[in-house]
Structure formats: C-alpha cells, structure tokens
UniProtKB/TrEMBL annotation:
It holds the Pfam family ZT_dimer. This is Protein p34. It is found in: Cell membrane. It comes from Ancylobacter pratisalsi. The chain crosses the membrane at residues 7-26, 32-55, 75-93, 108-129, 149-170, 176-194. Belongs to the cation diffusion facilitator (CDF) transporter (TC 2.A.4) family.
Length: 295
C-alpha cells in the first residue's frame, strides 16, 4: 500500500469523526449554520471515499487496454468531489430558504460550540497532512480533498463566531445569513476543484518550474546532438509525459543517437519522478534553429 493510499484511507476515518462531532454540535444548538457546516463534512466523507477509489485505480499498471496507465482516474475523483460540493451547497440554500419563513430557536450551548471548534482543529491538522502528501505525490485527488478541507475549516470558524453573535444580539436571522455565506463559499470551492480537474483531463502542460528543469536537463545531457525542438509536455495525475524532436548530425550512427536519447531519459527520470519520455530523432537538415540548443 502506498503512502498516498494510506493517507486517503486515514481521511475517511477523520472525515467520519468530524461529521459526527459537527452533527452533535448542531443537535446541541439547533443552528442552521452549524447544520450547513455538518452537511459540508458529509461531502468530506464522500470526497475521502472517492479519493481512496481513485488512488487504487490510478495505481494499476499500464496494460493493453490502457497503455499509458490509469493515472487520470484521480481527475475523475476530483470531478465527483466538485459535483458533491455543489449538491451540498444547494441543499444548504434550501434549508436557509425554509428556515427564513419559520421560527427557529438558537441555543449557544458552550458544549455545542466547543464540539464544533474541536472538529475544526482536527480538520486543520489533517488539511496540512493532505496538502503535504498531495504535493509530494502530485495527487489531484489528495489536493482536491485538502483544499475542500481548508474551505471547511474557514467556514467553520466563521460559523462559530456568527452563531455566538446571533445569540448575543438576539438577531437569529444572522444564523441563516451565515449558512447562506457558507453555501456560497462551498460553491466557490466546488468550482475551483472542477476547473482544475477539467484542466487535467484536457492534458494541461506541466508547471513552468518543472518545464524549465526539463529543458535544462535536455540541454545539458544531449552532448553530440545539435538541438531539441517541438518540446511538449502533459500531466496526468502523478504521471508526466514528455516528447520532443532531437536533431543530430546526418552521418551519426543510429547506436550513437540512441545512446544520447538514453542519457537524456536517464537524467530526466533522475530529476522528475513518474516521467515518461518519447524522443523522435531527426537529421540536421530538419534543424529549425530554435528550441533548445545543446550545451
């Protein structure tokens, strides 16, 4: 079992614990805002389960049906998360609309607020764990889970303050307004997750920092070649795919050109994990006098 999968499975347990605490806080206070906070945690449970499934699928080795592997499964997980976030937000809006025309009674029970605060602290700690592992493993599923968790932490903090103020001022509609604001925040989080997931499914290029590293390694390791051009990259989950044309002298033997390609591939694999390199060798007549000059 990989480290990322262990973290994802841990998220399931953490999210269930937090959901239970937040729902208890709602029962103790009767706050619609705290109910909306608990509902967001229900999405966290679904998100964590989705991440576990996606990581299991994406870890499968390439086969005849999927020669480039299953890494993109993580993007589908992130899309599911985004949709669930939107559903949660719409459910909260419905509760706000219903509650606006009904008499509600708030009870700022210290125990209820303390339980909700404890759930927020747990989420904050686990957010740090998810983001660290997600960035290390380049996992869209873990990063999507972590970003939604941070949204949950921020909205929980705002809700706690708002519920206290609603009771202190006697203006109970403030509780509903806060619930609506939580829903708006959740919608924004869902849109961000969906946008990035669609970008991954559309084969977006690697970040500029990674692209610069790839270009430098090609320039340094292609001794004997003339230039490299038409460099293209795409990222699919943790996998990075790179292809380019390498121009060599026309009289160079195939075995020497192949040795240069091997040297470049080895250097890139040493610098960037989970990378697949494809090099098309061309004679010097194909040189474009642009791209990556060989050092």
């Amino acid at each position: 079992m990989t480290q990322s999968l262990r973290i994802a499975m841990g998220s399931v347990g953490v999210s269930i614990l937090v959901l239970a605490l937040k729902y208890l806080a709602y029962l103790l206070t009767g706050s619609i805002a705290l109910y909306s906070d608990a509902l967001e945690s229900l999405v966290n449970v679904a998100t964590a389960v989705s991440a576990v499934v996606a990581l299991r699928v994406s870890a499968k080795p390439a086969d005849a049906a999927h020669p480039y592997g299953y890494a993109k499964a993580e993007y589908f997980s992130a899309v599911v998360v985004g949709v669930l976030i939107v559903v949660a937000a719409l459910t909260i809006f419905r509760e706000v609309y219903t509650g606006w025309f009904e008499k509600t009674t708030l009870n700022a029970a210290p125990a209820g607020l303390a339980v909700n605060a404890a759930a927020g602290v747990i989420n904050l700690v686990w957010w740090a764990v998810l983001m660290r592992e997600g960035r290390r493993a380049r996992s869209p599923a873990l990063i999507a889970d972590g970003r939604h968790l941070l949204t949950d932490v921020l909205s929980s903090a705002g809700v706690l303050v708002g519920v206290f103020l609603a009771v202190a001022t006697g203006w109970e509609k403030l509780d509903l307004i806060l619930a609506a604001l939580v829903a708006v925040n959740i919608l924004w989080s869902g849109w961000s997750v969906l946008r990035e997931s669609v970008g991954g499914l559309m084969d977006h290029a690697v970040p500029e920092e990674t692209l610069g590293l790839i270009r430098r390694r090609i320039a340094a390791e292609a001794t004997g070649a003339i230039e490299a051009h038409d460099l293209r990259t795409r990222q699919a989950g943790r996998m990075i795919f790179v292809d380019f044309h390498l121009v060599v002298p026309g009289e160079m033997p195939v075995c020497e050109a192949h040795a240069i390609c091997d040297r470049i591939e080895d250097a890139l694999e040493a610098e960037v994990s989970d990378i697949l390199v494809n090099i098309h060798v061309e004679p010097e007549a194909k040189a474009k006098q642009q791209g990556i000059p060989v050092l």
